[in-house]
Amino acid sequence: MEELKVKIKCEDNFEISGKLLKPERIKSAVMIAPATGIKKEFYAAFAFFLAENGFATLTFDNRGIGESKGNAINASNASLTNWGKLDMTAALEYLKSEIPYSDYHLIGHSAGGQLVGLMKNAKELKSMFNFGSSSGSLHYSKYPFRLKSSFWLNCYIPISNLIFGHTKSQWVGMGEPLPKNVGKEWTKWCNGKGYVKVDLDTKIKEHLYNELNLHSLWVHAADDPIANYENVQDMIRVHPNIRSKIRTLSPEEYGFKDIGHMKFFSKRRKELWSLATKWLNEN
Q1: Is the predicted pLDDT of residue 174 greater than 90, yes or no?
Q2: How far apart are CA 186 and CA 200, in angstroms?
Q3: Residue 114: which residues within 8 A CB-CB, separation 6 or more?
Q4: CATH 3.90.110.10 fits domain 2-136+205-282
Q5: What are phi and psi of 66, to 5 degrees?
Q6: C-alpha 206: how far from chain center
C-alpha cells in the first residue's frame, strides 16, 4: 500500500493537508470528511481498514484545523460554509486527479456529512455513508443534554469568541480550537431546524442540496444525544431528492458499553467498520 502526505490547493489558493492511502488494487475511491474540529489522524485506523479492503482513501484537515491551521487562527476565513464549499470540493478534485476513472464516495462524520450540498462537485459522488450526521437541532434534542448543548452554543461559543477571537473548544474536550466563524455558524444553524437550511438561498445562494439524488446511508448510535433519530431525519429533509436509509446502532447489540457521537471510528469499535465496507461494495 502506498501512503502519501499531500497538500491540496483550494479554489482560493489556501492549501489543506491530507493523507492518501492507495492499495495495489483499487475498487473505488473514498474521501473521509471530518467532524467539526477533528483532525485527520482521528480517522487513521479506519482509513487504513478501508484501504486494506481495496478502497483508495483520502483523509484531510479542514482549514483552521490540525495541519491546515494556517498562520493565525483569529485571521482564518474558516467557516462551516467554506469547509464544504472550498475544502471538501478541493478534496474530491484531488481524489479525482490521483484516482482517475473511478467511482467516488463520501464518508462523512457529523459535519462532514452535513456539508455535502455545499460541494460544487457533489454530483460526482456516487454514494454517501454518514455516521453521526444530523442537524443537531436544539428543537429535537432531549433533556438534560438540551440544556448542556444550549449553554455550549449560546453562551460558551460567543463568550469565547468575544474574549479570545476564536472558540476555545479544546478546553471542554470538543476537539481543536475553532475559528470564530465556525462557531458562529454552528450556533446559528443548531438553533434552527435543518442546520445549514437556515442560510440556504439567503446567505448561501449557491448549493446542491435540492439537486442531489445519490444513495446515502445515515448511521447513528442510539446513545448519541446529538445525532438522535429526529435530528438525523431533520438533516435528511434538507435533501428533498436524496435516496436515504437510516441505520440505528445499539451498543448492547454489539456488546459495547457505548458508541455515542465519536466512537464508531475507534479501533475498539472496529467490529462496526464492516458496515462501511459493505455499503461501499454494494454501491
Answers
A1: no
A2: 14
A3: 80, 108, 133, 134, 135, 195, 196, 235
A4: no
A5: 55, -130
A6: 20
